[in-house]
Structures are given as C-alpha cells and as structure tokens.
C-alpha cells in the first residue's frame, strides 16, 4: 500500500517506533527521511510545524504517540482490549515523562542545547534512571509475557526500547544492574518479524 | 416420617434460600464490578477532565478526593506512585491521559472513527506540551521547584501562549464544530479548557489577544450536560 508515507528526520528519535510498527506488519510504506536542510522548506506546509507526520489513505496524522497508537491499533500492537490499550497508553506516557526528565542532560550532551552536561547529569540522568527503571521492571514482572503488556509485544515496547538504545549509545553503563531490562531489550530486538529491519536499518546515536 | 418430611421441607427451603442467596451475591458482585472510582487530590489539577467525562455521561462514580496529608499513605499502594488512578469494573488504570482516553472511548467522547481519534489524541498531546512548558514556570512560582520564576515567565508562559494558542485556534477553525474536533465535543476540549482556566487564574488578561479562545471556553462551560457540575464545583 503505497499510500502510506512516514516523514521524519533521518534518525531514530521519536519516529522510529512508527517505522517499527510498519515493518513489523510488513506494510509497504514510503520512509521519507528529511535532512535538516530540507526541513525549513517543508515546515510551514505542515500542520503544526513539527515532525513526524504520517500520511495514510489520504489523511495526515501528527504527533508521534498519536501516530504510534493509530498504527498499532491497525496492526495489532495496541493490546487485546480497551483495558490493555489503556495500560499500554499509560506505559507510553510514563516513557514520555522519562524522556522529558532526561532530555535536559541528553540535549546538551548531543549539542542540541547550550550547557554543561556534567552539571545536569545527576538530576536528569541518574535520578531519572533510579525513578523509572524500577517502574519498567514492575511492568515487566506484572505482564509475565516478557514484554510490557500481558498479551505480548505492543507499541509501548518500541517507544521504551528505542530510548534505551539512545541512552546506551551515549552512556553504555546505564542498564548495569538491571539485567531484566537488558534481557527485555534483547528480546524486543530479536522479535522475528523485525530481525531483518534491526540488522539493516540506518542507525543513529539518538 | 415426621423427620423425613421436615428434612424434605428444610432442603426445599435451603434450595430457595440458596438460589436467592446466589443471585444476591451475583448482583452484589455485578454492582461491585461496575464500580467506578476516580482517585485524585481535592482539586482540578490534571484529573478534572476525567471528572468532566464521567459527569457528562452521568456515570455514577466515586469521586475520591484525598488531601496532601493522606497522600503519603496512599502512594505506596498505587501502581506507579502517582495520581490520578481509576478503578473501573475491577481494573485499575493509571496515567491521566490514558484514563481520559479510556473513559472517552467508553462514553462517546473520543472522536468519530480512527482518524478523528488520532486527531483528538494529537490535540491532547499538543496541549500536554503546552502545559509542560508553562509548568516549568508555574511550579517554580508555586514553590514546588527551585528557581527564579520571573526569569522563566517569558519563555515558559508568555512565549508558550504565543506558540500554542494559535495552534489550538487552527484546530478550532478547521473543525467548524465550535469544538476542537469536527464531530463536536471530545475529551481534548476538556484538557484544553481546564488548562485555559488555569492560565486565566494566573493572569486574567492572558487571552485578551485571542477572543475566539475566550468564546470557545465559554462554549465548553455552557454544555448543558455539565452546567450543573461547573456551577457547583470549586475552581
């Protein structure tokens, strides 16, 4: 179905979960990756001046989690019923908070913002890891499926693991002492439908 | 003979009483299972949209409001140490927007069809970003976080208003329904309007540049199903 087009920068960032959902479902889509030079021209033509956006059957959808949820519902990665759907939504929102808490340090480290990452590390990385990783361990324990939701793989697993990959890229020891989460990350990266994509996809630090 | 008769009579009564008792238990279980309880602090905060959805749909629910003194006792018993949480038919849900979306889908306030649902989700996420930006200033001003509120006010309050209100106005204009989504009222209207009330409380003139936004807020607060709740609740 070539009337599916996903537009984002050429990084994993907040767009990769959508790509993973589409690859997992073997959807034929256009994976448009913009350079930072292309973007200023396109930006005023977009709905909200932000990326990613998804074109699907003539409709345009914005906001990464709205896109992720829309695709996940279409392709069976949104839980088996409304309760599980809400659980997954909640876990993805927890992940959003984790991301927001770490971002001030991460953005200065990656050069997106001015500042000294060393000054921000304790409050934004260390404290956030202490707050959020135990929550993820709990979700995993309760789910008993090896993934965040009881019925198995869902889009929440993609938003979480992509961020963990980013953290490991910049700080390789972040998951030390959290073997359950290390194993969880490996498990997601070994999902059969995605092995090929994970092995061949363009990599990026963030 | 008498004893046999009595035994038969007793067993007859037992069956009658037993069946009624079973039905009674099933009914009690059903009522318990249908129980809806929203737990949050005693204020609008980030949970008010859930109360609005439930009041709009005339759902009989327990509006459990706890004090800041009670919270340390309740916190460890929650899933993620945060509020609000929702108990619904024996399930516990956490995270405010997940709760809003769940309730909205149950009570017809999530948008019509998958594309409109995605639109409503997107507007709510934009609203969340708006709130996050303003909170950077507001939490400092209220003393919840250290920092210089005066320095943060322009980038996180005034500039945020200039960035996000026009985006929300665009959605209003495009929808043509008077609400944010084309089909009419949705849960995104509750998240947006509650936040508009909050920023107006901080600065009553903040929306003077945006009269359509003020009209929109009036429109949401005049929804017939909610007039009574809006007039009786404390803001």
TrEMBL record, chain A:
EC identifiers of the protein: 2.5.1.18
Keywords: Transferase
Domain of life: Eukaryota
An example Gene Ontology molecular-function term: glutathione transferase activity
Domain (GST N-terminal) ranges: 2-79
InterPro entries: Glutathione-S-Trfase_C-like, Glutathione-S-Trfase_C_sf, Glutathione_S-Trfase, Glutathione_S-Trfase_N, GST_C, GST_superfamily, Thioredoxin-like_sf
Cellular-component GO terms for this entry: cytoplasm
KW Transferase (keyword) present: yes
Residue stretches making up the GST C-terminal domain: 81-206
Pfam families named among the record's database cross-references: GST_C_3 (PF14497), GST_N (PF02798)
BP terms from Gene Ontology: glutathione metabolic process
Gene3D superfamilies documented for this protein: 1.20.1050.10, Glutaredoxin
Reaction(s) this enzyme catalyzes, per UniProt: RX + glutathione = an S-substituted glutathione + a halide anion + H(+)
Family of this protein: Belongs to the GST superfamily. Sigma family.
Protein known as: glutathione transferase
Species of provenance: Panagrolaimus superbus
Record lineage: Eukaryota, Metazoa, Ecdysozoa, Nematoda, Chromadorea
From TrEMBL, chain B:
Enzyme class name: transferase
Biased composition (Basic residues): 1-19
Catalytic activity: RX + glutathione = an S-substituted glutathione + a halide anion + H(+)
SUPFAM superfamilies referenced in this protein's UniProt entry, alphabetically: GST C-terminal domain-like, Thioredoxin-like
Pfam families found in the cross-reference section: GST_C_3 (PF14497), GST_N (PF02798)
GO cellular component, one term: cytoplasm
Domain GST C-terminal stretches: 113-235
Protein keywords: Transferase
Transmembrane segments: none
EC annotation from Swiss-Prot or TrEMBL: 2.5.1.18
All copies of domain GST N-terminal, residue ranges: 34-111
GO molecular function: glutathione transferase activity
UniProt superkingdom: Eukaryota
Keyword Transferase: yes
Xref: PROSITE patterns: GST_CTER, GST_NTER
Family listed: Belongs to the GST superfamily. Sigma family.
Protein name: glutathione transferase
